[in-house]
Specification:
alpha+beta, MutS, DNA mismatch repair protein, domain I, DNA polymerase, domain 1, Dna Ligase, domain 1, 4 domains, five-stranded mixed beta sheet, 23 strands, globular, disordered N terminus
Length: about 550
């Protein structure tokens, strides 16, 4: 095979959502199937397309053009589950592969060098095996990067080694949609700027793209130039690794739960090690007598039985302590059978303060002994698996174990929410994009950071966030007014709440944004402005309800 160090084979099942829906509903391959999402067709199999069904059609148009078509609503779980199960045939044929998305997978060709004489032979063997196993049609694509190979698979094409950049240059700019949903807004902007191909985008200076479009703009610019970021994560065998234990009598005793958790953790880790893998995230599920459940996923750097037992104990104690406020507990008044609580971080009675205790309708449960209520079953699930090399830490990390032990001790003393780590979620304002997650737990953003947020701040983001009223004044001392068309006068001075004033030496163009417009109680119309003062301070200002506010500081 080729001596090129980086060659990627991508296999794509065309019209995958329609194929998955047909399999889920046991529909034969000759029957037309269309899948709708948001009221529009997002996939249709060959019989449906032959009958005239096209992407973007609504349900009425599908019924008019192909009355016998089976119309199904898009189901992400079906897409993922069906594809993961179907490509299991590859687990016996290749050592490494990656599920890029439902219907698309990537295989590094260097892992096939010793099994096949050349690339065409490898592709033929793998596709033949998959078609025989699944009955699906696969389009292969080979190139020097994953992104280019995905585009090549749409054309069932092999890009010669070293020709990936030329191949990408001829592709339309709309193919950036394969880079993710965030690229949709960028594609429209690129088209308005006159960029019609990836070659047009690649010809721009990286510095200009980064300053105008931020980190994601730089990412798609690298893709257009044939450059790849971090390699995709290898697929981990689909076998579910878990351990479960049912208790003969319910309990809330933390020592009993900790002892059982160590046994259960040892059983689960033994299963993981037998697979030659490493577990980096674990999901702990607790079932109560009344049918309620608590589920929380924990990231543990050094996965051991004692660490698992500590997390289970913290989760159980926090959940059961919620009975004092009637929230998220087996005895909580608001809990119903089958309800799943993912907060698992209720404040204990001793931490809540006298104000919280005043609203308790009944005494808190005795955490030492519970004969009628309590936890009746424990379940541990390996939520994230990786190869041992993928879990290896850097040799330059110092005192990792000591820091981990200290933070775990703080969580053990004061609860999981005592140690929080910062992150980013979706939103327009710097304050709402902040995401704080208990240490070693999986972040669960309320708003997707990948979704388009028109008008949101691009990187770099403010280092500190605040909301204090200030005055922005013109050169004659009059207030600066902000309108949708822009500022009525140039800002010259900013006056802080302390009475201190600083001259403004530079400022950006203002831009309006309206958030929460769908809810009259939440709608906010604001105008943003970035300024630099004579002291060298870079500030983010926002005018809301006729008042200027200092909302962020850049360092």
């Amino acid at each position: 095979m080729s001596d090129e160090p980086q060659r990627i084979l991508v296999l794509t099942v065309p019209d995958w959502p329609a194929v998955a829906a047909a399999a889920e509903h046991e529909i034969g391959p000759g029957h037309p199937v269309a899948v709708l999402h948001g009221g529009k067709v997002i996939a249709a199999n060959a019989p449906a397309r032959t009958a005239g069904v096209a992407l973007g059609n609504n349900k009425r148009a599908v019924g008019y053009r192909c009355p016998e078509a089976h119309v199904a609503a898009w189901d992400e779980d079906v897409d993922n589950r069906r594809f993961s199960a179907g490509v299991g045939a590859l687990e016996d044929l290749v050592a490494r592969f990656t599920l890029l998305s439902p219907g698309t997978l990537a295989i590094p060709l260097d892992s096939l060098r010793h099994g096949y004489p050349d690339e065409p032979s490898a592709v033929e063997a793998l596709v033949s095996a998959l078609v025989a196993e699944t009955g699906w049609e696969f389009f292969p694509g080979i190139a020097d990067t994953v992104f280019a190979a995905v585009l090549a698979s749409g054309q069932a094409r092999r890009v010669e080694p070293g020709q990936t950049v030329d191949f990408l240059a001829a592709q339309p700019i709309t193919t950036l949609e394969y880079a993710g949903s965030e690229a949709t807004a960028l594609i429209e902007v690129f088209l308005q700027l006159g960029l019609r191909t990836l070659g047009d985008l690649a010809g721009l200076e990286a510095r200009d793209v980064n300053s105008r479009f931020g980190a994601f703009g730089r990412h798609v610019h690298d893709l257009a130039r044939g450059r790849e970021g971090a390699p995709p994560t290898d697929h981990i065998r689909a076998e579910r690794l878990d351990a479960e234990l049912g208790l003969e009598a319910p309990t809330t005793r933390s020592d009993t739960l900790g002892f059982l958790a160590r046994q259960l953790g040892s059983e689960l880790l033994a299963k993981v090690r037998r697979q030659g893998l490493v577990c980096t995230q674990i999901t702990i599920e607790l079932d109560a007598v009344g049918g309620q459940s608590s589920s929380r996923t924990w990231r543990i750097e050094d996965m051991q039985e004692n660490a698992i037992a500590d997390r289970l104990r913290w989760q159980a104690e926090g959940w059961l302590a919620g009975a004092s406020t009637g929230q998220g507990s087996p005895r909580g008044a608001g809990a119903s059978p089958g309800q799943r609580s993912r907060t698992g971080s209720s404040t204990s009675a001793t931490q809540a303060g006298p104000q919280a205790l005043d609203i308790v309708d009944e005494p808190a449960p005795d955490a030492e002994d519970f004969s009628e209520d309590g936890i009746i079953a424990l379940r541990l699930i390996a939520a994230e698996l990786t190869t041992p090399i993928g879990a290896t830490r850097s040799l330059f990390d110092e005192n990792t174990g000591q820091i981990t032990h200290t933070l775990e001790r703080l969580q053990g003393l004061f609860g999981p929410d005592a140690v929080l780590v910062p992150g980013i979620q979706g939103g327009w304002d710097p304050a709402e994009t902040n995401l704080w997650t208990p240490w070693q737990q999986t972040a669960a953003p309320a708003r997707s950071p990948q979704a388009p947020w028109p008008g949101a701040l691009h990187a770099p983001r403010p280092t500190t966030v605040e909301h204090s009223a200030v005055d922005v004044l013109a050169a004659d001392g009059s207030p600066v007014e902000a309108r949708p068309s822009g500022l009525d006068t140039a800002p010259a001075t900013i006056r802080f709440p302390t009475g201190q004033t600083e001259a403004i030496t530079d400022y950006s163009g203002s831009w309006p944004i309206e958030s929460g417009w769908w809810d009259p109680k939440r709608t906010v119309y604001r105008t943003r402005l970035q300024v630099v003062t004579e002291q060298g301070r870079a500030l983010l200002l926002s005018k809301e309800h006729g008042q200027w506010y200092l909302t962020g500081r850049y360092r």
